[in-house]
Specification:
Layout: E1 7-8, E2 12-15, H1 22-30, H2 43-60, E3 64-69, E4 75-82, E5 91-96, H3 105-119, E6 127-130, H4 135-143, E7 147-154, E8 158-164
Antiparallel strand pairs: 1-2, 2-3, 3-4, 4-5, 6-8, 7-8
């Protein structure tokens, strides 16, 4: 079993996903907020998605974390590293749950996930895949310093924009130690 590390930022804890996350995860996937990531989905399909997120850690050695607000202890979404079959390369992705958008959580957690990819896993590069009409995610990409590079067509998700993140040497957010 791949141990899933816990990361901390000034406001957030990025932790392993688990069965207790299913109600919030299912509510997200049942909502219109999931339209950019394959939803909305019913309860059974949402359960399969959560199982896939957990299994991704075992298959790839990395994955996405559940993100908790440290002050309220509420789960605000899921952010992390993702590369299922059919993806062009490993990505940094984020899904925020209803009511938690516009607070900088995706950007803060995205920095921590990217630092982990570069500093711990040794990635030389990373992308984020964004549906063309997902202006909120494109804005997060810009705040993270990513640049729209190309388009990619996925067999199920259709056309997505490929946003390239700054390479480790160009990364100016302080690395993992900035979040310790």
């Amino acid at each position: 079993m791949t141990p899933i590390p816990t990361l901390s930022t000034p406001r957030l804890t990025l932790r392993a996903p688990g069965a207790a996350d299913y109600p919030a995860f299912a509510a997200f996937y049942a909502s219109d907020r999931a339209r950019f990531v394959g939803g909305p989905l019913g309860a059974e399909a949402a359960w399969r998605m959560l199982a896939m997120e957990i299994g991704h850690w075992q298959l790839r050695g990395y994955g996405r974390w559940m993100v908790d607000d440290r002050e309220s202890r509420r789960t605000v979404g899921m952010v992390g590293l993702f590369c299922p079959e059919g993806w062009p390369e490993p990505e940094i992705g984020w899904d925020l749950f209803e009511g938690f958008e516009g607070k900088g959580y995706a950007t803060e957690a995205g920095h921590a996930a990217r630092d982990y990819a570069y500093d711990v896993l040794g990635w030389a590069t990373a992308v984020s895949l964004v549906k063309p009409d997902n202006t909120a995610s494109a804005a997060v990409c810009r705040r993270l310093g990513a640049v729209k590079e190309a388009d990619f067509v996925h067999e199920r998700h259709g056309r997505m924009q490929v946003w390239r993140h700054p390479a480790p040497a160009e990364n100016s957010d302080g690395g993992m130690e900035a979040y310790a």
